[in-house]
Structure formats: C-alpha cells, structure tokens
Amino acid sequence: FKGGDTCEYLLSSGRFLGEKVWQPHSCMMHKYKNSEAKNCLIDKHIVFIGDSRIRQLFYSFIKLINPQVKEEGNKHGNIPFEDKSASIKVDFLWYPEVNGSMRQRIKSWTEHSVAKPHIIVAGAATWSIKIHNGSNEALTQYKINITSIAPLLEKLAKSSDVYWVLQDPVYEDMLSESRKMITNEKIDAYNEAAVRILNSSSRNSKAKVKVFSVSKLIAQETIMKSADGLHLPESSRDTNAMILMNVYCNKIMKPIDGSCCQPQPPLTLIQKLAFCFFTLSIIGYLIINLIHRNNYRKSKSCTDLESGEERKPAISTPNVSTLEMLLHSFCKLGLIMTYFYLCDRANLFMKENKFYTHSSFFIPIVYILVLGVFYTENTKETKVLNREQTDEWKGWMQLVILIYHISGASTFLPVYMHIRVLVAAYLFQTGYGHFSYFWIKGDFGVYRVCQVLFRLNFLVVVLCIVMDRPYQFYYFVPLVTVWFIIIYATLAMWPQIVQKKANGNCLWHFGLLLKLTCLLTCIYFLSYSQGAFEKIFSFWPLSKCFELNGNVYEWWFRWKLDRYVVFHGMLFAFIYLALQKRQMISEGKGDPLFSNRVSNVLLFISIVSFLTYSIWAGSCKNKTECNELHPSVSVVQILAFILIRNIPGYIRSVYSSFFAWFGKISLELFICQYHIWLAADTKGILVLIPGYPMFNVLVSTFIFVCVAHEISQITNDLAQIVVPKDNSTLLKRLLCIAGFFSGLLLFSAVQDQSRH
Asked: Which PANTHER family match (predicted)?
C-alpha cells in the first residue's frame, strides 16, 4: 500500500492487457462516451500547447467530444475547436519549442485580467533536438527555458489542471534522414531535465504540475506501428486522451468503473449508525463472554468436603445463550462487513479492469468440471430433482457464473446467452421448489413466508446499509423475492388448492390450471405494458426498493428478461408431481425414468434440443434481438438438461458433492462477489496481491468463499432467532422489523435531502 493517490499511478504506470486495452497500475479506467465527456467539460476551456505530438493528442481528445472531427487544420499553426451545445472550447497552440514565445504565452494566463484555461496540456522537445542537430548546447538552453517556465506553470496549477507531457521514445529505424538526430538517448536526457526542474520550487501539492509520463510506457509498446517512427499510432493517442479524460473527469462524474482519481466517498449517516451498531455488538459480545468465563471459573466443579461428591455448576439460562448467539453473529458480521467496506469503498486495495480472453474463461470451466466429476457420490434418494441434485445444479451454475464475471466474458455473445440460461435456471428452480412445497405441504403460514424472505434478503439489506447501495442494485435478490411473493399469492389466494384436496376431486386440478393461466395472462400483460409495470413499482415505498438511478427501468428490464421461466418451473412441478402420484414414472435406484423405449426417445429429443439451443446461441449476432427471444426459448435447454440428468437411472442416482457444497451457499456467493472478489460494484477485479494475477485470484477466492460460507451460517443462526415459530413472539418481531425499516426510510430521506 503506497497511499491513495491513484491519479499518480494513472499518469505514470500501467501495462497492456492484450494489444489495445491499457490497464493503469492499481486502479480502473472508465471509457468515456461523447455525452459523458460533454457533461464533464461543460463550460470549460482547455488548451494544448506544444509540437506535433501534442497536436495529435489534441485531436484524439476533441474526438472524445465530437467523433466527426477531421484532422484538417494547419499543421504548423493554431487550431481552435468549439462545441457550442456544451460551451466547450479546446485550443491547440503551435509552440514546437520551449522558448521565450511559449513562456510569454503562459505568462499571459497568469495575469489577473485574463481568463485562465481550466486545463493546460503542454510539452515539447523533439523540435529543439532536430533544429539544433542534437547539440548539448540545445539541451542546456532547454533546461534554462523550462526553468523560467516552471514557476509560471506552478502558479497556474493553483487554479487550473496543468499537465506536462514527457516525450515519447522514437523508433529510430523508421526515422527519416532529417530526423535521425532525434535519438532515444537525447529524448531521455530532455525528459530527465523536465522532471527534475518541474515542481522543484513547489511545496504545495495542489500547486504541482502533473507530469504525464505514462505516454512513454504506451509508446514503448506501440511505436513500432508508427507511420514515421516519431508519431504514435492512432490507438495509442486515443489511449492517452482517455487517460487525460479520466484524470480530470473521474472526480466530477464519479463513474463506477473508473476508480482512478476518485476520492473515497464520505460515510453516510446510515453507514455511521451501522458502524456504531456493529461496534457495540462486538463490545457487548466480549463483555458477555468475559462474564461467562468468570462465572464458569467460580462455579467450576468442586468437591463437597462433607459428602465427598462433586457439585456441578448451574446451567446458563436459555435467554442468555440466545443473546450471546445474537451478539456473536453480529460480531462476526461486523468484522466481515468491515472487510467488505475496505475492499470496495475505501481506497485501500487495488482494482483492475476485466479483460476477456477465451482461455481465461474456458480453462477454469474445464478445471472445475473435472473437480466436480472427481467428487461423485451416491444420492440419498433417487427422485427427480432431489435435494442433492438441485444443490449440485445450483453449485456448478454458480461457479460458471463466477468465472463468467471475473473473466469479463459478457463481451462474448454466445457465452452471454448461455449464462442467461443459467440465471433463468435459478428462477426455474424458484418456481419448481416453492410450488412443490406449497402444493405438497399446504403450509401457507406466516412463519414459512418470513423464514424464506429473511434468508433471501438479510445479507442484501445489510450490504445496502454498509455499502450505500440501493436494493435493486443486487437485482437477483429482488427478482427471486418478488417471484416468491407471486407464487405464494397465486397458491394462497382463494380457493386454496393443494395436493391433498386435489386427490379427493380431479376438478381441483383444473382449478389450479385456471389459476396458473391467470398468472400467465398477468405476466404477459405486464411484459408488454411498461407504463403499467412502472406505475406499480413507482409508488412509495416500493420505489425505494426498485429504483436504480432514479427510475425503475432496470427493474423492468431484469424482470422482463426471464418473465416466463418461473411459470415454467411451477408448471413442470405440477406435471411431475401429478405423474409421480399416478405412478407413471419409475424413480427406483438405477431404473430409467420411463420405459426403455420412451426413455431413449425422450433422451434423444433432449440432447438434440440442448444442442440446437447452443447452436442458436452461438449464432447470435445482436444482443437485443436474442434477449427478446430468450424468455420464450430458455426453457428448452433447461428442460432438456433436466431430462438428460434424470432419465438414465445411474446418472440420477449419483451427484457431485463438490458442486453441491457450493450450491448450498450459492446465494451468498452470488451477492458477496460484488464487493470482495470483483471490485467497483462488479465492474472490475479486486487486487489484494499486485503483480501476481494467478496468486491474487487464489487468495481472494479463498477469502471470498470462506466469507460466503460464514455469512450463510450467520444467516441461518439469525433466522432461528429473528423468525421464531411461536406466533405471538413472531408478531412482536415483525413489529420490530417494521419499525427498523421505517427508521431506515426516515434516515434515507434525511440522507437524500442532505445530498441534494
């Protein structure tokens, strides 16, 4: 850890990921769009002053504002640019040498009567080397001139952003005869002089000229592609311009995936209260622990001198143990949340951009599949989608999704479409699992509902508070929560139809199908009526849960993307349980699900369907068009997988304990990755050990998995305490929870008002 000034890293160090993606050391660089660049630079005046290399940087910079600009200006003259829509002025001033003329121009900006540019980008040296044939006298004069300019630049740096661009190396073999005297040795000497002289008299960090030295590193990798050996190729110039934009704009625009130059966000009121709560929990747990240990020592088994028998200590009361468990859970949770905050809110650990390669995605996939097959065991039961099998399914899907996120594979459309199926499969299991429970058990009690809602939402609510993120940010949890409520409402609504009732009269089956048809109609209507959907979820306080960036569009998009798959899961559960009840399927150990002939036909159809979907997903060219078809066709591959996994008796009788272990903590893994495995809210990668990418992934993954497992245990422990089975106690707890959320809404309103 070398301090939190990521601007210095951005301007001075980094490396290429692949051929064109520049990765600054320790932080993430945002790729600015034209609209973002205009919003940042509105009413600003930027000046580029120097030689032809600075002119190239000028053109790349203004193309970020207006990509239609052509490089048609006078090569050896001043070039103005203005964007009237945003009142942005960018000027290039032709001063190829650091001399009296350049000094006079810079001095004019220091006068009080003249409006100073907001950003000044300066640099020159190659002309001095060329004109004076690389003489030592020219270098001496350069040092004298830059010494006279330095105080003026430092004075301007008090109110403006001033950058001095060091000279890039040249590709000497490609230089024309008139430029042969421009050698890398000479360039290094000029750069060394500029670095030594600039800021030598300035002690105030705010009045420092920022030395733009990263361009040298970029040029070392790309100058071979130069057209003349002197000027950088266009891609390198664009990278330099983007770095310049990040240095100035990140602190203004605060992009999530642009951690360079961003200050640490201040603690909000809610975060401060959470910090106090966890601190008190830790202190409370330590005090109770000390008291218990002290009591244990006092009441330790001692021999009764009269009878010679041992007297055993009194057993602690259950209330004390419950309180201790509560404080112990919050104590551990407080330490874990501190780690979350340090990883993704404090500027303590480094963050890097993702970079996709096929090998970075497919090699880990093959590795975990081999591990999963290696840990194969027999299942306790051989029913379709038994508990071990669904845990296994969740586990391998979650691992694939994690690899997808850390490798940045969303840029590769075929992989993206298959990952969409995995997310849909989670929701399919939501429909299947909850429908099966309510249909078989007929338990519509408040206790069951509260248990499910608590287990789904506990971690996300804590993260919303600690990490200062809206509920909708963790989109998957709102999605499964709303679908659980929809499933519950559909089946609990009068008339309540459960398996026990339907067995007595077959007409109840048609009643349930009618309910499912009504549900499908509502889904269809809402999916094609964005206005109605947004009105429903824009009412306060629902809007506080489902708004992201001031609207509910993101929530509508996420819901619409997998709108039918939960219904498909419910329908599949209904058909499967009906077939099972009528003994139309065989679920014995080693037995095929149907007769041999039917099983072979269904297996063949399933394999063909599975491969057909993969071929279609692989041929996708447009993400928007494929997303439109996805809700209707994703169920094909899901059902095909279920049949392939369950029709053969042997395959149905075994499962991977490796995948099942991860499946039991899949929800925690999905949520925790946002902040302690990935970084910048999933946009980048957390770097605990810089310089060793593989070792860093191993260490951060180990910590991440351990934390997810621990949070899963904490959630289970707290669920037993917060959601008791006794109805009167549960009612009191629900009132307390309602009070907690009311207070949270109040503090959130105060917080929002103070921000505005």
From this structure: N-ACETYLNEURAMINATE 9-O-ACETYLTRANSFERASE (PTHR13533)
Instruction: State how beta strands 350-353 and 310-311 pair.
Output: unpaired
- In one-letter notation, the amino acid at residue 747 is F
Q: Tokens 């270098």, residue?
A: 139
Catalytic residue among 25, 30, 45, 231: 231
437, two tokens: 């429970």
Residue with tokens 């969303």, as numbered in its chain: 410
% of the chain surpassing 70 pLDDT: 95
CA distance 738 to 740: 5
Report the pLDDT averaged over residues 555-570. Answer: 96
Q: Provide the pLDDT for residue 310.
A: 42
Question: Do the bridges between strand 14-17 and strand 21-24 make them parallel or antiparallel, or are there none, so unpaired?
Answer: antiparallel
Residue 178 — φ and ψ, nearest 5°?
-75, -10
Q: What is the DSSP track for 301-367?
A: -EE-TTT-PEEPPPPPPHHHHHHHHHHHHHHHHHHHHHHHHHHHTSTTSEEEE----HHHHHHHHHH
Q: What does the buried/exposed string (b/e) look like for 279-312 if buried means 16 or more CB atoms within 10 Å of the residue's CB?
A: eebbebbeebeeeeeeeeeeeeeeeeeeeeeeee
State yes or no: is 238 an active-site residue.
Answer: no
Domain with CATH 3.40.50.1110 in the chain: 6-253
Question: Which pLDDT score, from 0 to 100, does residue 542 have?
Answer: 86
d(CA 747, CA 741): 10
Q: From the candidates 12, 13, 52, 657, which is the catalytic residue?
A: 52
Cβ(12)–Cβ(166) below 8 Å: no
Is there a catalytic annotation at residue 236?
Answer: no
Q: What is the pLDDT of residues 615-642, one digit of tens each?
A: 999 998 899 999 999 999 999 999 999 9
The torsion angles phi and psi of 297, rounded to 5 degrees, stand at: -65, -40
Distance of alpha carbon 404 from alpha carbon 361, whole angstroms? 7
Half-sphere exposure of 695 (CA within 13 A, CB side): 5
Q: Which fold has domain 6-253?
A: Rossmann fold (3.40.50)
Q: Which of 85, 101, 228, 586 is catalytic?
A: 228
Which band of pLDDT confidence, cut at 50, 70 and 90, is reported for residue 258?
confident
Record the pTM: 0.90
**What band does 136 get if pLDDT is binned at 50, 70 and 90?**
very high
CA distances to 95, 170, 225 from 51, in Å: 6, 15, 21
Q: Decide if 187 contacts 216 (C-beta within 8 A).
A: no
**For residues 384 and 576, is the Cβ–Cβ distance under 8 A?**
yes
Q: pLDDT tens for residues 138-175?
A: 999 999 999 999 999 999 999 999 999 999 999 999 99
AA letter at 153? L
- H helix intervals, 619-656: 623-646, 649-652
Residue type, 139: L
231 a catalytic residue: yes
Neighbours of 630 (CB within 10 A): 23
pLDDT value of position 293: 83
Question: What average pLDDT does the segment 397-415 reach?
Answer: 96
